[in-house]
């Protein structure tokens, strides 16, 4: 299951020729780096192997200008085949980077447990890891007490969807439910009704199998948009979250990114404390149910990609390879959610499992005590159309920051 950034699906086997091509494209032209080229693998490489995940990870960051992406690779693969190249890139970036700005100290870990019931830990230093690449559908802490902060300024309204942005002349019919906003700087929420759906897909990626029926017994609220830079900064201003230096120049209504699962836990803890409501990350089942918007097709709008429905490199304008566009730039799905396809990968509450065998059928988070990886959903603006399908999923270490990862929030309606 891999893709361009996180590509998490591919043909069941990857022949030597394909592996060689990946390695060849990964070799930089910069002088002095070619000597670090790793040897080619022999034979064929089944998908979901550690070797293929590493190749896909490198492929997704090889042209990055963010030191954090290479730091993430080295954290994940300290003795990896591209470790020498990653270190060389870091040295080159360090030599050309301006002096870093002062950064607020990290909040200490919260006493007690995270939303998943595990002991909270302080977020790791800014690092990133990239999910493996996906072929036509394939596989890729808590708030610190602080002195009263000034009242946050209201977040600007996200960019309105363009007329007819459902693509190919088709305009989405959105069930516009009443919007909930629990504080001026809080994310706007919409209510998703209770119901049942088929979760997963039998199309290609083993991690999305077996398709299974899930029943969501109670309505829940979920972010209409992904959490934005301005909303994150309101938490940082109040001392509840860390500053994210890599998005300092981003638009206020751009989705916040380069945040870890642990960082997202800080944000929902701060929202809960600020509003008195129980904010959390959506469960994986809730996320897919909401993203599908009542559909059973590959995308919420049908089985074929239509340009203008998602922020991805094959999905039409507006698109910029360097960063996602402001939230709400594309049409909402029938439940009123924007950007569930593309934009940024979104953290959910669940531990990663390599298939849905034994998954709960009631919509709750699938967690366990030793959770080494958390699930991300939805693809990002750097991936192609095959990553935009509603069933797309991948994993990251909860402490890892990656420049394509963000999140949206949820809370119970009780």
Automatic annotation (TrEMBL):
SUPFAM superfamilies named among the record's database cross-references: C-type lectin-like
Pfam families named in the record: FGE-sulfatase
Record's compositionally biased regions (Low complexity): 111-146
Region Disordered, residue ranges: 96-169
Keywords: Signal
GO terms, molecular function: formylglycine-generating oxidase activity
Superkingdom of origin organism: Bacteria
Position of the signal peptide: 1-31
Matching Gene3D superfamilies: paralog of FGE (formylglycine-generating enzyme) (3.90.1580.10)
Domain annotation Sulfatase-modifying factor enzyme-like: ranges: 186-411
Segments of skewed composition (Pro residues): 147-159
Protein name: Formylglycine-generating enzyme, required for sulfatase activity, contains SUMF1/FGE domain
